[in-house]
């Protein structure tokens, strides 16, 4: 295991938990955390864990990119800036394309790049007191790590414009209830007091699913958004044809016939 400075990495049973550990900075993403998030993603991806949880420490999930890193990047020429942003985006991609379900467990503030990172996860669950917003407009920026493109697809362009352009101040941030009921990007809202146990139960339920089927389903659901319908259907058929030959499928069928819980091995 790597010696992390800005994160806590815990692998227990089928679940890896990656916790941001800069609570005094509302877990803002600095250069060290960005590098370590990629390293942690790689460590989790090649482990035998079946589910990954991203969570914050203190009173925030993450307030976004650290202003010191933004100032440093702002001094670059345009070509260097674009190169740095591509490197920045690879960190988000590691979680979106990991062949395991990734849960963003959002407590407190989830803003800017922290919000964008959550959008690259497979599930967003939140405490009742969580809030979401994009303050980039306050410094003459846009949320440019996928939020504009992803939100337009996920919630529609009109809703996306409200999230990107109208949630920059503390008083205009979106509550967890609004995120779930109105915008639809939060899957579940849990009581603050039971949040940790509720996340654990959700992760354990996901860990009980067939790993290969979960990985294939995630890949198809993620990539089919950019495919024509006919191509996406062919992608489904190809995935299903491979799963039909798997040991997990055989085990699932046998367990169903024998009226017992399946014991999947990811093979």
TrEMBL record:
Q: Name one GO biological process term.
A: fatty acid beta-oxidation
InterPro entries linked to this entry: ClpP/crotonase-like_dom_sf (IPR029045), Enoyl-CoA_hyd/isom_CS (IPR018376), Enoyl-CoA_hydra/iso (IPR001753), Enoyl-CoA_hydra_C (IPR014748)
- Keyword presence, Acetylation: no
Biased composition regions of type Basic and acidic residues, renumbered to the chain = 247-267
- At the top level, the lineage of the source is Archaea
What keywords are assigned to this protein? Lyase
Which residues, by range, are in coiled-coil regions? none
- Name of the protein this chain belongs to: Enoyl-CoA hydratase/carnithine racemase
User: What organism, scientifically named, is this protein from?
Assistant: Natronorubrum sediminis
């Amino acid at each position: 295991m790597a010696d992390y400075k800005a994160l806590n990495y815990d692998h227990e049973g089928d679940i890896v938990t990656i916790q941001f550990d800069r609570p005094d900075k509302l877990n803002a993403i600095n250069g060290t955390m960005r590098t370590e998030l990629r390293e942690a993603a790689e460590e989790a991806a090649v482990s035998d864990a079946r589910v990954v949880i991203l969570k914050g420490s203190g009173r925030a999930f993450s307030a976004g990119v650290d202003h010191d890193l933004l100032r440093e990047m702002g001094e670059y020429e345009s070509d260097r800036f674009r190169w740095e942003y591509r490197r920045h985006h690879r960190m988000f991609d590691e979680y979106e394309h990991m062949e395991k379900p990734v849960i963003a467990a959002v407590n407190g503030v989830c803003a800017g790049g922290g919000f964008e990172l959550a959008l690259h996860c497979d599930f967003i669950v939140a405490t009742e007191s969580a809030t979401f917003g994009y303050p980039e407009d306050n410094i003459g920026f846009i949320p440019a790590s996928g939020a504009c493109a992803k939100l337009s697809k996920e919630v529609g362009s009109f809703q996306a414009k409200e999230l990107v352009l109208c949630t920059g101040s503390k008083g205009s941030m979106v509550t967890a209830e609004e995120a779930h009921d109105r915008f639809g990007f939060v899957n579940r809202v849990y009581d603050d007091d039971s949040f940790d146990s509720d996340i654990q139960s959700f992760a354990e339920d996901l860990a009980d699913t067939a790993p290969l089927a979960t990985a294939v389903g995630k890949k198809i659901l993620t990539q089919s958004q950019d495919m024509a319908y006919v191509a996406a259907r062919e992608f489904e058929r190809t995935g299903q044809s491979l799963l039909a030959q798997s040991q997990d499928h055989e085990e699932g069928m046998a367990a169903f016939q024998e009226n017992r819980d399946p014991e999947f091995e990811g093979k």
